[in-house]
């Protein structure tokens, strides 16, 4: 293939990898009650079926981003895709819930390698005039896959069984591996000679792991319990250690010097806050329809499609507009639209609520997030030099995924925090939960509290996005002009 068509072939190949990985962030959102029942898993184990993948995927993205800058992207991408496919096959044979959780961690490692190489390869390959469109397509595939996950997961569980939530990855992975081997060109690492920051990686893993553990267990075993307090102490102590170490090591995992650029710093913080605010909407709506309205997994998955519709409609439109309007205008407007959607969800979550209001709220959340993500990602990738794009994308993806993890744990905590001990398990039982009319009112109140909290977080992300400036435009162009495409 010639140099003119290569970027688009690369985009198609990497989009298939993104599709595979991001589907697995949400296929279990609807299937979770079925897995919990099959393995007879309690609330703690049920939480970690979801959180194990999200946590390790988030941390390892940052690690493998540095590896990609040092060793090259093609080789790591192929290794990650092969590993992800193989582990997905093994997940269907898990004999108990804890083996499944371990396999989910290995699956997350393969997914992290894929994701951390995708955006830098696209940024390196495309000229600036078409980069916005390419990143818009990439964001569209990623977002649509993550939001379609509940529909696909619900379908396989309803028609077949839970194993096919993992096994459907295998044929897609094999096709993607063969295709990538043919299309992708070997590109040497642009940061050769640098070393891995092992202590920094360890510190950030222990810090985030402690936070996620505390959020996931606080409403189950009590916020004053020793394990929960210990997790919060771990978060603070190792976060301080991480910041202290990164300012002294020669080749840090996170170059804090890049955060002197206000636009870069605010774009990354807005990435985290947007993920924290929007990521658990699909999970909450799917569980709401299963627990409150007794819908099966497939129908509950269909009920979250408005989020997908909004994202699909917004991403390509905003990708085309990103060359004409500022990142500040597009990103902040998108977050404002998402906040209106959150307001509708918080007001219209109840036993007698009309589905059309819930659908409208979901659509606005999806469309607003689509408006935000493409220009925000472009801004981050073009404000750093090519040799730092792996680390920059790793940090962006890690912040986004940590937002997803915390959002999931926090939302489940908020829903169950208003429930008595004997009702907490009903959230994970889905349509199989045996609850009375009064219990349903309590459960609806828990969902309403979660949506209100997400709305407040969206308002905060609007303020952060607005705080960026537009001085990075010239810098973005200079960085792009120095890149050989």
């Amino acid at each position: 293939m010639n140099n003119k068509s290569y970027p688009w072939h690369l985009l198609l190949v990497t989009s298939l990898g993104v599709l595979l990985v991001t589907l697995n962030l949400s296929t279990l959102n609807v299937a979770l009650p079925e897995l919990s029942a099959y393995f007879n898993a309690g609330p703690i184990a049920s939480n970690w079926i979801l959180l194990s993948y999200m946590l390790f995927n988030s941390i390892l993205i940052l690690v493998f981003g540095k590896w990609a800058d040092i060793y090259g992207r093609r080789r790591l991408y192929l290794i990650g895709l092969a590993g992800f496919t193989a582990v997905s096959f093994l997940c269907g044979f898990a004999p108990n819930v804890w083996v499944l959780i371990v396999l989910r961690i290995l699956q997350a490692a393969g997914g992290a390698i894929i994701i951390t190489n995708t955006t830098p390869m696209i940024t390196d390959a495309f000229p600036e005039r078409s980069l916005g469109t390419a990143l818009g397509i990439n964001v569209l595939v990623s977002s649509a896959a993550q939001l379609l996950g509940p529909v696909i997961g619900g379908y396989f569980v309803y028609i077949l069984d839970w194993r096919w939530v993992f096994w459907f990855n295998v044929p897609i992975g094999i096709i993607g591996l063969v295709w990538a081997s043919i299309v992708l060109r070997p590109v040497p690492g642009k940061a050769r000679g640098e070393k891995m920051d092992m202590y920094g990686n360890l510190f950030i893993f222990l810090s985030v792991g402690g936070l996620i553990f505390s959020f996931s267990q606080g409403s189950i075993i009590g916020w004053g319990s020793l394990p929960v307090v210990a997790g919060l102490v771990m978060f603070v102590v190792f976060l301080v250690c991480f910041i202290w170490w990164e300012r002294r090591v020669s080749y840090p995992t996170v170059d804090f010097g890049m955060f002197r650029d206000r636009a870069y710093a605010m774009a990354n913080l807005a990435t985290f806050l947007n993920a924290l605010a929007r990521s658990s909407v699909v999970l909450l709506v799917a569980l709401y329809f299963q627990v409150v309205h007794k819908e099966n997994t497939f129908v509950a998955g269909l009920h979250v499609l408005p989020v997908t519709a909004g994202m699909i409609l917004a991403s390509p439109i905003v990708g085309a507009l990103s060359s004409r309007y500022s990142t500040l205008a597009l990103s902040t407007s998108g977050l404002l639209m998402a906040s209106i959607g959150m307001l509708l969800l918080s007001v219209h979550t109840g036993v007698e609520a009309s589905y059309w209001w819930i659908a409208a709220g979901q659509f606005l959340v999806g469309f607003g997030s689509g408006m935000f993500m493409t220009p925000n990602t472009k801004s981050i990738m073009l404000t750093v030099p090519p040799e730092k794009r792996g680390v920059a994308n790793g940090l962006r993806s890690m912040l986004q995924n940590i937002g997803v993890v915390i959002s999931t744990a926090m939302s489940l905590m908020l829903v169950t925090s208003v429930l008595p001990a004997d009702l907490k398990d009903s959230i994970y039982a889905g349509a199989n939960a045996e609850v009375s009319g009064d219990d349903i009112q309590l459960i609806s109140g828990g969902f309403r509290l979660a949506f209100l909290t997400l709305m407040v977080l969206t308002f905060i992300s609007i303020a952060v996005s607005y705080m960026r400036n537009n001085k990075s435009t010239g810098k973005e162009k200079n960085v792009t002009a120095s890149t050989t495409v």
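Residues 471-485 have pLDDT under 50 and may be disordered. The radius of gyration is 21 Å.
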